[in-house]
Specification:
alpha/beta, 8 strands, binds adenosine monophosphate, 46% helix, 209 residues
Length: 209
């Protein structure tokens, strides 16, 4: 199965992808994670880190190349969960062509729907584990200092500054929302609930799992 996870920044796509990965056995492929794994001490890594910290999108050619490399790995042969890609129409067309060439197709596009005001407030409360990437909400886990899963330190991502958040939403509206229309026929809307578990329950129903 090939499933795309879409929605505004702060909708919790990464958390849902982790839960879906456990439920389906499909690998979670996140272009954001792929970019964060590029060594920031290399010229390319430094450039990418700067773009990410500013809330802008990395250029399509580089993003497509990195994604294609990841999808060619063995664990993706039977399908994958794509989180944070495609974010532009050019990326969507690249993915469509990449899949067509391999006689594969997208099974479903989950759209995690959350009003912008709520998404912004969730982002400002978000803490991320620097070791395993688990995401915390300061309101739901007040006073948490270390990751309960791996003991890693929690930090606020660079792209959560007010200026970067503003830029991320502008990029989302201008470049990513048109992608939703591109996949209208496969789109399954999931209202983001109060808890990740509630949202996950809705996602499972939307997918018919
Ligand atoms: P994410 O972890 O999905 O929120 O992504 C973090 C950042 O990585 C984004 O704000 C972009 O700077 C970059 N990024 C991730 N995925 C893409 C993509 N598909 N196209 C361009 N830039 C991306």
């Amino acid at each position: 199965m090939i499933i795309l996870l879409m929605g505004p920044p702060g909708a919790g796509k990464g958390t849902q992808a982790t839960l879906l990965e456990k439920a389906t056995g499909l690998p979670h492929v996140s272009t954001g994670d792929l970019f964060r794994a590029v060594n920031p001490k290399t010229p390319l890594g430094a450039k990418v880190s700067k773009i990410m910290a500013g809330g802008e999108l990395v250029r399509d050619s580089l993003t497509n190349e990195l994604l294609a490399q990841r999808l060619q790995q063995k664990d993706c042969a039977k399908g994958f969960l794509l989180d944070g890609y495609p974010r532009t129409l050019a990326q969507a067309k690249y993915l469509d062509a990449w899949l067509k060439k391999r006689k594969k197709r997208i099974d479903a596009v989950l759209y995690f729907d959350l009003p912008v005001a709520k998404a912004v407030s969730r982002l400002s409360l978000r803490l991320t584990c620097d070791s395993c990437g688990m995401v915390y909400n300061e309101l739901r886990t007040p006073g948490v200092k270390k990751c309960v899963r791996c003991g890693g330190a929690l930090y606020r991502r660079d792209d959560q500054s007010p200026a970067a958040v503003k830029k991320r939403f502008a990029e989302y509206g201008r470049k990513t929302e048109p992608v939703l229309a591109h996949y209208a026929a496969k789109l399954r809307r999931v209202d983001v609930g109060q808890t990740p578990e509630k949202t996950f329950h809705r996602a499972v129903i939307a997918l018919g799992l």
